[in-house]
Amino acid sequence: MTTRDSYASETDTTEGRVYSVTGGDWDSLVTEIGQSKEERVVVNMGPQHPSTHGVLRLVLELEGETITEVRAGIGYLHTGIEKNTEYRTWTQGVTFVTRMDYLAPIFNETAYCLGVEKLLGITNDIPERASEIRVLMMELNRISSHMVALGTGALELGALSPMIFAFREREKVLDVFELVSGLRMNMAYVRPGGVAQDLPKGAIPKIRETVKELRHNFKDNEKLLVGNTIWMKRTQGIGYLDLAGCTTLGITGPVLRSTGMPWDLRKTEPYCGYENYEFDIVTTDTCDVYGRFLIRMQELEQSLRIIEQACDKLEKSEGQPVMVADKKIAWPSQLSVGSDGLGNSLDHIREIMSTSMESLIHHFKLVTEGFRVPAGQVYSAVESPRGETGVHLVSDGGTRPYRVHFREPSFNNLQATSAMSEGGMLADIIGAVASIDPVMGGVDR
Fold first, then answer.
1. Residue 8 scores a pLDDT above 90
2. Rounded mean pLDDT of the chain?
């Protein structure tokens, strides 16, 4: 490859002349393009939010309106979360990992806590009620995440109403999160050993009412898009990726299940008692954007089924503990939601202040110093809305993690952008990326 200037806007290659569009006078550039038979244009798409829930840059090489090459530029939301956790106690790590995939915070927290519990050897000691609450919150979170995926995906392809309806339903789920944890996102609600606090009074009836409303209202989007001529033309046969491509790239979640592969960790490698719930794994065999859209739409009903079963179980286990009995590990779960958010209830503070000085000292040491985790390493994974969210934890026997590394599905799935888009039209890359549903906070970490 030769060029006159390292900053030139055009490059002579063995395949013709390539123009790198980086700004300037578009009219003068257009007059230059087209003088040679063999030429392509390189366009920066972004850095922006094209259905990615974060900042993504796509470098596109175009031949006319056909995409000949796609390169994904990431790193714009890098936060150093994994490194930061090495300087915090094991429990404090929850407040960091919840902010990675910020549309699926409960899944980040649960994967991390399951790993810590494995290292501690207390997996079988987690109270059933705590696992039931985790399942309930994860499935509510799956719904809220899918609402963003479906709403923004439709919006990017020109459909405004589905976005309005999807976010209307998401608000209902976030209201439940606020009722239970005091926060709508990034709750740090799941803790090593259980959950931060039990469900408040009236939570189960409120959740049942919400499920009833969601089941009725989900039909709005379905009626708008399923069978809609414009929607079908923009999604059917677009972003094609078959099973061989998915397995080669390590793709999981709805993108993998759109190839007909019924791979879901809730069934294949159950955790939190998912083996005790009845639900179906939704698949299609279209391998395209439309199939992934259908999967997310139908997974909403399966999540509602699981939530109803979780509510039944929680009604029977009312009054049972939500944190492990070992006080050397268990952070206090006697919390309350006040005007300033989540904190220790005044009754609990009075109790530990008045019963014994030893319990007060132990409480102080547990919160400030943290508990020790035996040396070792472990991998634990959950099925998040985007696929397999896994965490590799390494302990050196101290009160802080030696290493935390996440297997984030958005990072892996984003590799499929090139395979889905190259050879297709420029207008179709938005649908392809939207069907991957990448959250860039999880990609960059």
1. no
2. 83
End-to-end CA distance of the chain: 36
What are the backbone angles phi and psi of residue 391, rounded to the nearest 5°? -130, 135
Distance of CA 114 to the CA centre of its chain: 17
Measured distance CA(89)–CA(264) in Å, rounded: 31
What torsion do the CA atoms of 117, 264, 185, 48 make, to the nearest 10 degrees?
A: 130
Q: How confident is the model at residue 164 (pLDDT cuts 50, 70, 90)?
A: confident
pLDDT digits (tens, 9 = 90+) for 102-142: 899 999 999 999 999 999 888 888 899 999 999 999 999 99
Percent of the chain scoring above 70 in pLDDT: 86
Whether residue 358 is predicted with pLDDT greater than 80 in this model: the reply is: no
Q: In this predicted model, what pLDDT tens digit does every residue of 430-442 receive, in sequence order? A: 888 888 888 888 8
The long-range contacts involving 188-191, CB below 8 angstroms and separated by at least 24 positions, are: 188/94, 188/95, 188/98, 188/109, 189/106, 189/109, 189/137, 190/94, 190/106, 190/109, 190/110, 190/113, 190/134, 190/137, 191/91, 191/94, 191/113, 191/323, 191/331, 191/333
SS3 content of the chain, % helix, strand, coil (to 5): 50, 15, 35
Q: Is the dihedral of CA 427, 425, 257, 291 positive or negative?
A: positive
Angle at 97 between CA 96 and CA 103, to 5 degrees: 115
Band of residue 15 on the pLDDT scale cut at 50, 70, 90? low
Q: Give CA–CA dist 34/32, Å, rounded.
A: 6
In whole angstroms, how far apart are CA 439 and each of 74, 90, 104, 138, 254? 11, 25, 9, 17, 14
Structure pTM?
A: 0.84
The strand pairing partners of 338, in sequence order, are: 341
Instruction: Match 């189960």 to its residue by tokens.
Output: 204
User: Which parts of 171-318 are beta strand (E)?
Assistant: 190-191, 194-195
| pLDDT tens-digit readout, 38-92 | 567 788 887 776 555 778 888 888 888 888 888 888 888 888 899 999 999 888 8
Maximum Cα–Cα distance for the chain, whole Å? Answer: 87
- Burial tier of 415 (Cβ tally within 10 Å: 0-12, 13-18, 19+): middle
Beta carbons of 394 and 377 less than 8 angstroms apart? yes
Alpha-carbon Rg for the chain, nearest whole angstrom, is: 24
Q: How many CA atoms lie within 13 A of 176 on its CB side?
A: 25
